[in-house]
Amino acid sequence: MRRSIVHMDLDTFFVSCERLNNSQLEGIPLIIGGGDRGVVSSCSYEARRFGVRSAMPTAMALKLCPQAKVIKGDMERYSQLSHLVTEVIQEKAPIVEKASIDEFYLDITGMDRFHGCYQWTNDLAQRVLKETGLPISFALSINKTVSKIGTGEGKPKGNLDIPEDQVRNFLNPLSIQKIPMVGDVTFQLLSRIGIRTIQTLSEMPAEVLQRMIGKNGVEIWKKANGIDNNPVEPYTERKAISSEHTFTQDTIDIVHLKSILSGMVEKLAFQLRSEEWLTSTVVVKIRYSNFDTETRQCKIAYTSADHLLTKKVLGLFDLLYQRRMRLRLVGIRFSGLVRGTYQIDLFEDTEEMLSLYAAMDKMKSRYGYDSVMRCAGASLKPNSKDIILKRKS
């Protein structure tokens, strides 16, 4: 049976959320993000016409579109509305994968025996709009790759149906940048040898592409040829991530304790960013040598940045550790998780800070978690003075 896979994406999600609250924002250039030294997290189509894009420095965006209105953003509200949309979709769709805070994959194979898959999906999109007030675009095709590309090509409000016999005709004229997994580096590499369209890429031998760009070469070649057998994974919300450290000998060394906590935060924060989670609740746990156990927690703005999380964790530890007694265990728990990336969370961050985290995470992913880390006891702000590289033997 031919698969029927839908990709649904909430149109300019953050902007749409803000316009639900304030109708005066309709039709005007709108930027969601930080201050003059921050970055654009999202922008309206009106702002995009001036060249404004996500991840662009806010100062540059305002030079391109000086009449734009800048709003800091409210991740908690965005998360609540995302959950509402998820409930509407899950109520109707047989299999739903929530890919991020504002996009979903649906496997509706076999639904065409009723009203037709396209009509069924269109009805669901209209239901989302009616019940949440948020516009949503979609594309229907034979797999996740083609449907995701289709959604991007159809925006805004241009919902597409790409049957199997039209997949190649749809993909061939598009830029290779439309393919998931093709980033700026890969695009520049392929462009230099004249490969700029998906058709040209699809006609290359897969082995040549693999030699050029490594292990992902074959996967990119498959996507260029409309091949993607990845299943739609049923969505389940993760509740929390945590870590505990039990000492071989009970300790009262505050400097050592805080160093351990800082390392635990850094590891958990990297996990959050790798899995695209943001946390809103920080919990610190300690266990004394007599086995008395105490915890303390606080709510924070959604984040996955270790310099912010470390500051909260160490502050909670100072409030929690009041007895002059040795500790046998310390633990950290991040809960209240929502889907999202580091970039869309840190509305007050600078472009330099985002670039630093991106570079650190890239090194950790490639060479291992401990290839780059912070010096114990250094400043909590991420700068060149508190980062160290560990040489691999």
UniProtKB/TrEMBL annotation:
Q: Please tell me where Mg(2+) binds in this chain.
A: 9, 102
Note describing how the cofactor binds: Binds 2 magnesium ions per subunit.
Query: Which co-factor is required?
Result: Mg(2+)
- Where does the UmuC domain start and stop, copy by copy? 5-183
Keyword Cytoplasm present in the record's keywords: the answer is: yes
* Parts of the chain that traverse the membrane: none
Q: What is its EC number?
A: 2.7.7.7
Localization per record: Cytoplasm
Molecular function terms in GO for this entry?
Answer: DNA-directed DNA polymerase activity
Which protein are we looking at?
DNA polymerase IV
Q: Which organism is it from?
A: Flavobacterium flabelliforme
Annotated gene: dinB
